[in-house]
Specification:
Radius of gyration: 13 Å
Number of domains: 1
Strand content: 25-35%
Oligomer: single chain
Strand order of the largest sheet: 4-5-6
Largest sheet: 3 strands, antiparallel
Order of helices and strands: EEHEHEEEE
Helix content: 10-25%
């Protein structure tokens, strides 16, 4: 999805953890901007537990799917941390599972 005209447009994609990391790398190459996955503290900081479905401020983050998003933070070689924007839960997910991605610029 791309931000345009005050909202996010397009269809969000779901990726394995490895695909999410590769997406950040390919976006960095194609745009010349260093993109990365947020760490779990950064991702958890935008969860809004006073809301559900999605558990995020839609004025700041429009059109966010109420599902799990990947972080760059690992638990093990098989699991990585994710934030569920349906209910605001932070948990480990199988790296083979599919989740959404919210890229951030490195150094921001």
């Amino acid at each position: 999805m791309l931000y345009s005209g005050g909202t996010c447009k397009g269809k969000p994609g779901r990726f394995t953890h490895e695909e999410a990391l590769q997406l950040a790398h390919s976006q960095a190459i194609s745009t010349g901007i260093t993109w990365r996955l947020p760490n779990i503290k950064e991702l958890a900081s935008i969860v809004d537990r006073s809301r559900v479905n999605p558990a995020i401020n839609l004025a700041a983050f429009p059109a966010t799917p109420a599902n799990s998003f990947w972080s760059a933070s690992s638990l093990s070689q098989y699991t990585a941390w994710g934030a569920g924007f349906g209910n605001g839960v932070i948990r480990g997910n199988s790296r083979r599972g599919r989740g959404y991605v919210r890229l951030v610029r490195a150094g921001q």
